Fold this sequence. Notes:
Chain A is mainly beta. Chain A has strands spanning 4-7, 10-13, 19-25, 31-38, 42-49, 56-57, 65-68, 74-78, 87-94, 100-102, 106-110. In chain A, strands 2, 4, 5, 6, 9, 10 and 11 form a seven-stranded mixed β-sheet that branches. In chain A, strands 1-3-8-7 form a four-stranded antiparallel β-sheet, with no helix packed on it. The radius of gyration of chain A is 13 Å and the shape is globular. In chain B, strand 6 and strand 7 (61-65) form a beta hairpin. The radius of gyration of chain B is 13 Å and the shape is globular. In chain B, 37% of the residues are buried. Chain B is mainly β. The chains are: A mainly beta, B mainly beta. Chains A and B meet through strand 4, strand 5, strand 9 and strand 10 of A and strand 4, strand 5, strand 9 and strand 10 of B.
Amino acid sequence: NAGVTQTPKFQVLKTGQSMTLQCAQDMNHNSMYWYRQDPGMGLRLIYYSASEGTTDKGEVPNGYNVSRLNKREFSLRLESAAPSQTSVYFCASSKNTGELFFGEGSRLTVL
Amino acid sequence: GQQLNQSPQSMFIQEGEDVSMNCTSSSIFNTWLWYKQEPGEGPVLLIALYKAGELTSNGRLTAQFGITRKDSFLNISASIPSDVGIYFCAGQPNTGNQFYFGTGTSLTVIP
Lengths: 111, 111
């Protein structure tokens, strides 16, 4: 059971570099989410997609873009990475209402 | 964004003791979720609650959906060392697809 799969698991960037975090789910869920987790801050929503073809901003969207490529895949892009974007990023999916399932996380360091 | 107040922030208990933690919100939620997160991993869903007053168990864990729909509680009975981790609550309001998270309760079990 793959569930929610994120790649890469670790990444180090220099300030100003760009990168894309990939996420795929195999549970046929409609909604997908990107969160970031920082010490003492809990999980904060960056962007979410309620269904294929739609995306909406969450609590902390600045500096990020997303693409809902199809029902399975939801990617998060950092166009010009900043040290403040050093964090652990989690992708999650749900059936719209009900249970939310997470990937294992992508640990990003921006130097 | 929506704020969930989760308490306590941390707990240090002896093996065998019971644990209680809670989460409150300023607005009504339709769904409450409880997660456990271990170091280096993503949050794992423990219990999902969908109705006010609902009491649901998962082994030694019991969670309740508060009757006001603005709070939820998690109890762990007879704690064991493998209960160590950070426990998060999450809630979903009756409008929209977003889930909001508490800041977590860090649990340490002393053998």
